[in-house]
Amino acid sequence: MKKIILSTLVIITLASCKKENQTATDTAVPKDSVAVTSAPESDKTAYAFKEVSPENMGDYLAKDNDTLYVTNFFATWCGPCIQEIPHFKKKMQELKGKPVKFTFVNLDNKSEWNKAVKQFASENGLTENIILLDGQKLDQNFYPKNFKQWDGGSIPFTHMRKGAKTDEYLGMMSEELLNSKINSFLK
What we know:
This protein has 187 residues and is an alpha/beta fold. The chain contains six helices and eight strands. The chain has helices at 2-16, 54-61, 79-94, 113-124, 142-146, 175-186; strands at residues 29-31, 34-38, 50-52, 68-74, 100-106, 130-132, 157-162, 165-170. The chain has an eight-stranded mixed sheet. A hairpin with a 2-residue loop joins strand 1 and strand 2 (34-38). It is globular and about 40 Å long. The N and C termini lie far apart (40 Å). Mean pLDDT is 80; it is low at 1-46.
């Protein structure tokens, strides 16, 4: 019952930011084993963000190979999420060329994808690392099916996976904690 209530609260929270409805195309384009679609472009300078369905997000999180996947769930309206981004960016630069893939899963409302998310991506140089997940498509089974400890009740949330080894962290990570967790996978 608690998970249902928490999932409902997340959906309501995400829906409360909604300003207008936008429709996304459903043309699937496989990339890095995740079927994605491009968000609608409102003008010629719009970014072609990748949208992933909850089902495909689960497939992405379950990858079992020698690459370290660092997946951070965030929203542009989340202060702690924004505060930890510089730590991730620094680590991305440090590990450039290594078998490590950083992905930022944006949970903003669809109406913000071409506004706040576009601005955030541009300001932080993360356009290629952001994928969009429509929180209104998440059901009560998404969280227990994909995570050991995250019930969707709060963000930021970071999931790491390399092979069969996983790590989950709920809350804002310090630079030291992020380094420690990533280094434990790279030993």
